[in-house]
User: Fold this.
Amino acid sequence: MRDGYQKARTRMVEEQLIPRGIVDPNVLAAMAAVPRHFFVEEALRPQAYGDFPLPIGEGQTISQPYIVALMTQLLELKKTDRVLEIGTGCGYQSAILAAICRRVYTVERIKPLLARARRNFDRLQLFNILSKADDGTAGWAEHAPFDAIIVTAGGPRIPQPLVEQLADPGTMVIPVGDRDSQALTVIKKAEGEISSRVAEYVRFVKLVGAHGWQSE
Ligand code: SAH
Assistant:
């Protein structure tokens, strides 16, 4: 896409992502192409490519570029994959996923945020994203199983429906912990076995729902 922020995006990739170990060529290409400034309000656009999270309204935030890239890389996506995202927010992470794989299913509990994300998808002509307003801790059973699942809000535990809706083989990335700090956990399902490891420590907004925190 040609826009006034192309240079800022290239710098973001070269200064924030590559030096910290983002190597997946599909992830780097998506981060270099998707117009992040487009997903934040006008006044914040000059800061859109900075090395920090930004507010997106309703008390929620868009993650720092490095965290978006890291979580995407941890999913080890293939072009044919179908991915479930919990926590659409402004839709930036969904757009990154949509640039890499076949289909993205994304769930957001706050309706005005989802409405705005949908407008962004339309304007960017991202037709391989399907979204709904709901409690994503229950997953999206009608479209399961998913090759990859990404949860972009932090919960106290791993929601069991998401484990069940993960394909075999499949990978899930989810921040798990208390309100102030969470372990970015990578869960793999392979030949019927579940394994998990911690990739990083992060701080996300709360995953609120039946299989998450009970309140904001
Ligand atoms: N991926 C987003 C990050 C948004 S912040 C982006 O790129 O902008 C996390 C989002 O998760 C918030 O919008 C919050 O409302 C949403 N969320 C929290 N709990 C949820 C739940 N149970 N189901 C769906 N969305 C949830």
Q: What stands out?
A: The first helix runs from residue 6 to 17. The pocket of S-adenosyl-L-homocysteine is lined by residues 56, 60-63, 86-87, 89-90, 92-93, 107-110, 113, 135-137, 152-153, 205, 207-209, 212 (CB under 6 Å). The CA atoms of residues 20 and 64 lie 13 Å apart. The longest strand covers residues 166-177.
